[in-house]
Fold this sequence. Notes:
The structure holds two protein chains of two kinds. By secondary structure, chain A is an alpha/beta fold. Chain A is built from ten helices and 13 strands. By secondary structure, chain B is mostly helical.
Amino acid sequence: MITVNKLTKIIDKTTILNQVSLTVNKGEIIALVGPNGAGKTTLINCLTGLIRPTNGEISLFGASPLNKKNKVKLGVMQQESTTLENVKVKELLTLFRSFYSNPLSLDDLLGITGLTELQNTYTTKLSGGQKRRLTFGLSIIGNPELLFLDEPTTGMDVTSRKMFWEKIQILKEQGKTIILTTHYLEEIEKVATRILLMKQGEIVHDGTLESIQSEMLQNKVSFQLVDDHDEAKLGDLPYVSSIEKKENNVTLYTANSDETLIELFTTEIKFKNLLIIPGNLETVFNTLVEEENE
Amino acid sequence: MNTLIVQTKTDLNRSLFRSKPFIFFSLGMPVGFYLLFTKVFNMGVPEEYMSVFYKDSMIQMATYSVMISSLFSFSMTLIEDRKQGVKQFLRLSPMPESIYYGSKILTQFLINSLLLIVIFLVGHFVNGVQMDSMTWLTSGLWILYGCLPIVALATIVSLVKDPNTASVLNNMILMPLAIVSGLWWPIDMFPEVVQKIATGLPTYYAAQGAKQLAAGQLPDGKGILIIFIYFVGIMVLSIYLNGRKEEIKR
């Protein structure tokens, strides 16, 4: 469905995407995960044809993303919600429906977005979560085969979010292909068939949730330091990627907790209250973000 | 075709029927000033000149009204469309962009025509301005033609990122332009330099030509030409600037 070969995008001499290669098959639900500025939105914009790549090739349904014929099969939910002053929910949906020759019916759209009762409300008066749902509704108006969702749940409350993922599940069962970006990792665990971790314009991991967990998970080793003089030794421990220290409470992030612990004992660092906490996706993500910030 | 109707209807709701600022600035203010000028500040106008004064003031305020709507409403709608991702959505949809622009032009034409009709009605019923139907029509059409450069200018103003900046910019353009073009006071009241400038402005001819038509004359050929040159020139500049902006983003 999508083939990307060595895609590079440079904007103002900054490399946003660096030699990204990727193949997407029909029916996949792909989560693009990564810190802000990793290039997720730029990648989506290249795939949808909004921006042109500096280098590399993209094939979308066997043609260039710029090909207007592709647009019928495409739906995009942008990061920012779409609302217009003095335009009601029903009217905005009607306006955007008119852009397609075979759109979903207005009733279906109101049902999917859960905005049936708010159809006569001005779009600017909606709550943040309702605006997100409306924008989601706009993205699926043309009943697309391929759907891009850029941070769909940001700003949604718990109810909106639950409803949203139920709809995604339905779309998944219909065999739609979905590529989405998000910051909420616990949500995608249930629905995503594949996860792409992005960092500084590159895909650093491409696989299932399980493969990420086995490859990238970092266990946490935490304890209280008895002797402050031992602090200097902490940095020499093997497999430790980062150290957090609050007063004498130390947390180590390690890719191999066994080896780290053995070394911890042999160097005779004095500690108490040792805890080993298995890593989760959230920690992987946080590590990525932290590295980015440094 | 359906798209054109739906979009035009939506845009008319947005920038005309449901927009209080529009009703106030584009319609209320020109009508108010017209009544103020002709009913209150009319001392010193000779009796025999009164009917011409009513007629000319009506045309000046009608031109002013169309100028406001062409510049403000149009640029603000374009900015909102861009900020809210409507334009981006359009580029991602199978709909050709030409329909979008077609509808914008149609909407502006309808809005401007409505403004003219309202102000002409006020002129006719309140101040008893009399013209035959052909003259009403031709002077109205002339004003629409004369304001085309302003419509084009709005597409340049709409490139400004922030609506507040655009609003300030619009005000900075509109007021001086209206005054120098003789829409508030006759330009013979101004120093010679200002009069020279006025005769180089399209908005001066927008009102001037309509007044000539209303007096049973034909508009100056120079006016037709100047309006046309401004329109084409600003349009070319706008297409260039718009294209450059898109290019940077891509």
